[in-house]
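Inverse folding, one chain.
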């Protein structure tokens, strides 16, 4: 059995600790444990030197609009492979039925592919990745990933998962951010070439290295990594950082005003405004959004100002699946929870389908469920009865987190000090009692 971590301890001159020392150690250990529960640790950003594979795959397919000027994307979100074997088999059925009915040009895995808290070895990651990508590989359909909050809670960090994906098949278009100044690992852009470009993605005899790189780029897919620690000045977990927005602006300037779409795992707070103030299709089944505030990064407002990204799609809140146009400019949309692990969606598991039209650029989107059925989502109109508070149920609400953290640290410190004083006094009292017995 392969082991990621091994520890060797040499015990030298071991002495049995006193009761007082044992009590103090217990107090300190419990206090540290309590504090650690409230401090977000981002596993995807950690460094792990374990090698996953040595295979080098350099030839990758190119994305392009088909001859009818269409480009279809299937968004699988929150698959949660690794939760249980029976759930993993059901996940395969979801992916098979959706992909067989839609036959997309591209699949976006928009986070929480794994319930990695149940994964113990790198071999398990590889076995699950074979299942995650099986439906795409058998049909020669390319895919990409971005991280959710549960993908890196196992033995592998984010860079190792990216390396595993890239080496698994040449159909993976996942890229790795290596700029240390930009938070996150899966921040990258994919180009979609014009339907008039030479070469064919589905031509088995075509070498993608011979693809005409001078062909015009008609659209792009921006992919953002929201699995970040210490977001913004408030220090909460899970957001898009202002440095990522600066990266997007730079990429946007370089490509010009090309209509694009974007994917991220955790939704921005504007999705609540969308529900409260706009006509949408779909359901707010969770009745709240575990989103992030964008006041500091200006993530959504920058997209609206620049005008090139026409649709931003996400997951994370399993029972939410609504979408609509925000400020008459940007479509914001939840996917449909795709997997059977973790808590259930309000309706059947499935996927969001996003179809782009090249000229004039437009977006059409719908839900395909596990049974292969095309769902008709209900229309929701703004009303006072269904208003949702503009509150993100993040690890802690950004607006209260600093004071809450200070309170927690102060409280734990006080408990530790009081306990130390108590045990010292108790120890002295016991010693005095023993002296009195001896004198008697």
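Residues assigned per position:
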């Amino acid at each position: 059995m392969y082991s990621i971590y091994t520890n060797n301890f040499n015990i030298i001159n071991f002495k049995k600790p006193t009761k007082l020392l044992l009590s103090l150690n217990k107090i300190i250990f419990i206090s540290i444990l309590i504090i650690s529960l409230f401090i977000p640790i981002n596993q995807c950003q950690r460094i792990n030197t374990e090698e996953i594979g040595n295979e080098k795959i350099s030839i990758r397919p190119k994305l392009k609009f088909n001859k009818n000027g269409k480009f279809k994307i299937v968004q699988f979100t929150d698959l949660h492979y690794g939760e249980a074997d029976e759930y993993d088999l059901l996940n395969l059925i979801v992916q098979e039925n959706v992909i067989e009915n839609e036959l997309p040009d591209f699949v976006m895995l928009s986070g929480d592919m794994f319930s990695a808290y149940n994964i113990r070895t790198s071999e398990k990651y590889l076995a699950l990745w074979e299942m995650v990508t099986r439906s795409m590989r058998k049909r020669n359909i390319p895919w990409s990933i971005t991280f959710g909050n549960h993908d890196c809670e196992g033995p592998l960090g984010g860079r190792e998962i990216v390396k595993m994906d890239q080496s698994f098949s040449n159909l993976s278009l996942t890229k790795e951010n290596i700029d240390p100044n930009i938070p996150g690992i899966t921040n990258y852009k994919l180009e979609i070439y014009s339907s008039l470009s030479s070469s064919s993605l589905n031509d088995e005899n075509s070498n993608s290295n011979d693809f005409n790189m001078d062909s015009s780029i008609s659209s792009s897919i921006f992919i953002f990594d929201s699995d970040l620690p210490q977001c913004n000045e408030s220090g909460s977990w899970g957001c898009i950082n202002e440095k990522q927005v600066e990266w997007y602006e730079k990429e946007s300037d370089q490509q010009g005003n090309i209509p694009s779409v974007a994917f991220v795992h955790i939704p921005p707070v504007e999705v609540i405004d969308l529900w409260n103030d706009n006509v949408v299709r779909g359901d707010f089944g969770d009745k709240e959004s575990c989103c992030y505030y964008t006041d500091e990064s200006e993530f959504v407002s920058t997209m609206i100002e620049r005008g090139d990204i026409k649709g931003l799609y996400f997951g994370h809140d399993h029972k939410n699946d609504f979408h609509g146009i925000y400020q008459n400019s940007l479509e914001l949309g939840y996917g449909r929870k795709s997997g059977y692990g973790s808590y259930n969606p309000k309706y059947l598991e499935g996927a969001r389908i996003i179809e782009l039209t090249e000229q004039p650029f437009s977006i059409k989107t719908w839900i395909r469920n596990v049974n292969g059925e095309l769902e008709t989502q209900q229309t929701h109109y703004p009303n006072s009865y269904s208003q949702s508070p503009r509150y993100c149920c993040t690890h802690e609400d950004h607006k209260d987190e600093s004071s809450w953290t200070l309170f927690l640290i102060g409280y734990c410190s006080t408990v530790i000090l009081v306990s130390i004083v108590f045990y010292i006094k108790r120890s002295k009292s016991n010693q005095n009692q023993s002296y009195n017995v001896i004198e008697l």
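The mean pLDDT is 80. The two ends are 63 Å apart (CA to CA).
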